[in-house]
Every structure is written in structure tokens, then in C-alpha cells.
Write a structure and sequence with these properties.
With 397 residues, this protein is mostly beta strands. It contains 7 helices and 27 strands. The N and C termini lie far apart (79 Å).
Length: 397
């Protein structure tokens, strides 16, 4: 027993190897981005939505430089507008005289309901009356009144950047017509203001590149615009209006080329062959095509010019009755159409979806709005109204 006790005391047990502790790299190395070629980074960023790109401007200096680069902005714009994908398109709504809301265009065609959200536009807190002139490349031109003077600003609702236009003073006029669009010849965005006075029409053009107004002439003296407060529409680099020829009392479509700043007449649809007299003609832009709206006593027709400037390409898209009301509603504005989804129409402050297959009407459910005053469609983009100024300071060096 003594021997066994001696052996137990002298017995050597194997030493246990201590467990190797997990080595955690510093926080900076843990989240370090992989070294990717810049060409690949650019291609990845081009596939992202505007909301993400606005946040990613603050990641690092190189990303901010890429996202602010004009060529990147143009290429991203071409990608989001080149196909039938409407995920990047939204409807801007003037709900009250001083409230602007926004809703996804997709919700009108592919979802059971949509939701209109408030837009925090410049001067919202001042509760001034505003109106939508038009949209182009993600920029929206807004006018507002202050002391009987109309003022403008160009605004990107997606990035919240804005630029206030210089004022040109008050004039003795009876009405106005506005237009907004891109001049590809001079790489410039322009605002058109037509003033109706006792004499000839006064036309002024604002250039975002020079940040100044100037007067142009040459508007045909034999034409008169029937709806002075109707905003003109941009198609194929030109601003379009409907007007009446005083010589023969007939409807005409007149276009102002933003590059050359010259006027020309566009052939109108041959709606007379259907045995109906068009009581009111107005023009719209529908998915980049010139659209003519011919209104009658109890219905209206929507025509689309599939090949710009070619009269034979006019095609009647829909013939739609007015909604049954105590008095016929006579204010229709087509906003968008899809071959397999129908035509979205603003019918006197109510959204209506006209099915092109079974010719039925549907009222899309949009939470947050009831009746509204005005609506237009814009694409989410990175285009800046301050593109001709110095680049912003980097958010993160």
C-alpha cells in the first residue's frame, strides 16, 4: 500500500495545452472594403437606386467623387429610363395649394393600393401656393406666388437639392403658360414663361447654365392659346402648346425648339374623319411621346404620335366617357400608359385606370389623398439643379 501511495504521488499527468484564443482584428480592419477595381465599383453603383446612392456619398471620398461625376449621373439616368421598368418612377401630386405629395407609379398598376407621402419642398413651412410646371430627368419645376409675382425653382425631390430662379419683376398680364425641359444641343435646362397681355405674347426663357432670363420673339401672331394657365409639355426637345389659328378658327399644335428657339407647327390628329368636332384640344407628354387630348361634350379621345412629326403615326389610344356627375367632368389628363396595364388618367382630381383590353375603369386606392389639384410623373435621378455650380464639399474625407 505504501508503494502504491508513493507511485500515485510521483505520477506525472500530461499537461493540458491552453486553448488558443480567437484573434479579433481591429474594428477598422474588420469592416475594411475589399480592393475592387474602380471599374467594377462603378458598375455596381450604377445598379443601385437613387436613395442608396445618396447615402453612399458619405462612405468615402472616392465614392462621393464617383457619384457626383456628371458622366456617372447621365449613365445612371439612362439606365433607369431605358426600359419598361417603372420601379424608379413616381407621381408627384399637388394635394392642396401648398401641399405636395409623392406616390410610387408601380402601385397604380401592380399593387393593391399605394401610399402618398408628404414631400418637404422649399418654402413648405411658409405655406405658399404652389403649382407644378413639369418634370424632366428627375428635376421638377415648381412655381409659387408671392405678392402677385410668379416665382420659380427647380428641385430634385429624390436628392432634395433645389435652385431658386432669379425674379424678373411684375408685369401687367392676363395669364401665363409655363414650360420646362432639357436642351440637349446646349446641355442646359430651360424654363419657358409665356405672358398674355394686350399686345403680342411675351415669351421669356430662363437658362440654368447662365442663371438668367431673356426675352425671345417670333411667336406666330395669328395664334392664340386657349388655356393660358395650362403648362406646356416637353417632347423631343421641344415645348408644345395647343392654340387656335385666328385665320380659319382651327386647332393647331405649336412647338418651340429649346435648342434653336424657333417655332414650328406639328400636324394634329385627323379626328375629323370620325364625324366628331373637337371642342377642345390640349397636348400632353405620354411616356416620351406627344399626346393629344380631344375633348367632346360627354367624352374625350387620347391620341399618341408614335413617330414624332409624322402625321400618319397618330394613333387613337382610348376613347373614354366622362364620369357620371351632375355635370360632365371636363378636365382629363393622361399621365402614363402600359400596353398590358392600361392608361392612368387624372380625371378632375381623381385617379382612374382605363383597361386597354376589356375597356373598363378602375379607381386605384391611394392612401393619404382624396381629391387633388394637379399631378405629374417624374423619375428618381441624381441630376442636380446646381450642376453648373461648384461640387459640394465631401461629407467624409
Amino acid at each position: 500500500m505504501a508503494a502504491e501511495s508513493s507511485r500515485s504521488k510521483n505520477q506525472q499527468f500530461p499537461k493540458q495545452t491552453p486553448k488558443k484564443q480567437l484573434e479579433i482584428p481591429p474594428c477598422g480592419e474588420l469592416f475594411k472594403l475589399p480592393d475592387l477595381p474602380q471599374e467594377l465599383i462603378i458598375e455596381i453603383l450604377l445598379q443601385l437606386p437613387v436613395k442608396s446612392l445618396v447615402r453612399f456619398r458619405s462612405v468615402c471620398k472616392s465614392w462621393c467623387t464617383i457619384i457626383y461625376e456628371p458622366q456617372f449621373v447621365k449613365k445612371h439616368l439612362s439606365l433607369v429610363t431605358k426600359d419598361d421598368n417603372i420601379n424608379n418612377w413616381r407621381v408627384i401630386i399637388r394635394y392642396q395649394y401648398h401641399d405636395l405629395k409623392s406616390c410610387s407609379l408601380r402601385s397604380f398598376f401592380h399593387e393593391p393600393y399605394g401610399r402618398a407621402v408628404d414631400l418637404y419642398y422649399p418654402f413648405k413651412t411658409l405655406r405658399r401656393g404652389v403649382g407644378i410646371v413639369g418634370s424632366c430627368d428627375g428635376l421638377v419645376c415648381i412655381y409659387y406666388y408671392e405678392k402677385s409675382v410668379d416665382n420659380f425653382y427647380i428641385w430634385n425631390p429624390s436628392t432634395r437639392e433645389s435652385h431658386i430662379l432669379p425674379s424678373f419683376g411684375e408685369g401687367a398680364n392676363f395669364g401665363f403658360s409655363y414650360g420646362f425641359g432639357y436642351d440637349s444641343f446646349n446641355d442646359d435646362y430651360k424654363v419657358i414663361r409665356v405672358a398674355f397681355a394686350k399686345g403680342p405674347l411675351e415669351v421669356k426663357v430662363y437658362s440654368l447654365k447662365t442663371d438668367s432670363w431673356r426675352r425671345i420673339g417670333g411667336f406666330p401672331s395669328n395664334l392664340i392659346m386657349f388655356r393660358p394657365m395650362e403648362s406646356s409639355k416637353l417632347v423631343n426637345g421641344s415645348i408644345h402648346w395647343s392654340a387656335t389659328n385666328l385665320n380659319n378658327n382651327s386647332w393647331v399644335i405649336i412647338a418651340l425648339d429649346l435648342g434653336e428657339e424657333t417655332y414650328r407647327e406639328i400636324p394634329k390628329p385627323d379626328f375629323g374623319k370620325f364625324g366628331k368636332e373637337c371642342s377642345l384640344l390640349s397636348v400632353r407628354a405620354l411616356r416620351g411621346c406627344l399626346c393629344a387630348l380631344c375633348e367632346y361634350a360627354f367624352s374625350f379621345d387620347v391620341w399618341v404620335m408614335n413617330e414624332y412629326g409624322r402625321k400618319e403615326s397618330w394613333t387613337k389610344l382610348i376613347s373614354m366617357p366622362y364620369l357620371p356627375e351632375p355635370q360632365p367632368i371636363r378636365r382629363s389628363r393622361p399621365l402614363w400608359y402600359m400596353k398590358d396595364g392600361g392608361v392612368l388618367v387624372n380625371l378632375n382630381g381623381v385617379f382612374v385606370l382605363y383597361d386597354l383590353v376589356d375597356h373598363t375603369l378602375k379607381h386605384p386606392l391611394i392612401c393619404g389623398i382624396h381629391y387633388f389639384h394637379q399631378a405629374d410623373v417624374y423619375v428618381e435621378s441624381l441630376v442636380s439643379p446646381n450642376a453648373f455650380k461648384n461640387m459640394p464639399t465631401y461629407l467624409n474625407e
